[in-house]
Amino acid sequence: MNRLDAMQSFVRVAELASFTKAADSLGLPKASVSTSIQQLESLLNTRLLHRTTRKVQLTQDGQVYYERCKDLLADMDELEGLFQQGASNLSGRLRVDMPSGMAKMRVIPRLPELLAQHPQLQVEISSTDRRVDVIREGFDCVVRVGKLSDSSLIARPLGKVELLNCVSPNYIAQFGTPQTLDDLANHQLVHYVTTLGSKSPGFEYTEQGDVKFIAMAGNITVNNSDAYSAACLAGFGIAQIPRIGAQDYLAQGKLVEVLKNYRAEAMPVSLIYPNRRNLSRRVQVFMDWITTLMNDYVDSK
Asked: Is the pLDDT reported for residue 234 higher than 90?
């Protein structure tokens, strides 16, 4: 038994509460993960996990061992990184999550630059608008746009991104250009909600520092950023799109900004990662790279 590999398997099972999910995340057969943990329990002469047909839970000893394993594995990553002076020596898997528009338009096109410096890195990118569970789903770090809820995670602020009021040229040809808030009564909004079936707050704007909303008509409601931009491009109405996702369309003339004096409140952009004593060098390098990359698209004020 490779004890470090066994501890890694145990940590993933503890975090995901599932042998199957842990095996999938590690790229190992489920039987191998199960055997490793059984060998650990025999070695330690204690039960680490309560196993039932429905769930897996840590025992009291398992909880103590889990916390110590996390620290030890982080220390091993850090120790290995001390001697990786050459760029090509940085290796291992990174699992990250970010909004789909950011991944598609900003990060993935620039990713070859990072991998040219560190060709042994393996990067797994999840791109979804839902809020992933960083610990349970095994992410090294995530980029989040919007206000953060309190948690045990560490947040590195990257700045704020402006929201621009955008429409397509076809929309302007059909409905005209809104000039004032009163004009919105005769215009359409692309509605965005996190859960379909919930009520859209409407058009957002700020007035003397206060956030306000205006209810608006609109024939389409979406729940992810790709569909939101696509609906705006198709002429369904006004969409309040982050500058990071809108600026290419604006430069190409595919979208037009309107109501510049009535923008929504800028949204904070944050880099989130687990509360661990040490981070592996590959995670540190990636986070520094994404921070530098985002400097081109966010307001640091």
From this structure: yes
Q: What is the pTM of this model?
A: 0.70
Angle subtended by helix axes 3-16 and 30-44, to nearest 10: 110
Report which secondary-structure segment, H or E, holds 145: strand 141-145
Q: Are the CB atoms for 225 and 245 separated by under 8 Å?
A: yes
DSSP letters of 229-265?
HHHHHTTS-BEEEEHHHHHHHHHTTS-EE--TTSPPP
Could you tell me whether strands 256-257 and 120-127 are parallel, antiparallel, or unpaired per DSSP bridges?
unpaired
Cα-only R_g, the chain: 23
State the virtual CA torsion across 74, 77, 82, 86 in degrees, nearest 10: -150
What is the rounded CA–CA span in Å between residue 144 and residue 216?
A: 27
Average pLDDT, the chain: 88
User: What are the tens digits of pLDDT across the range 239-249?
Assistant: 999 988 898 99
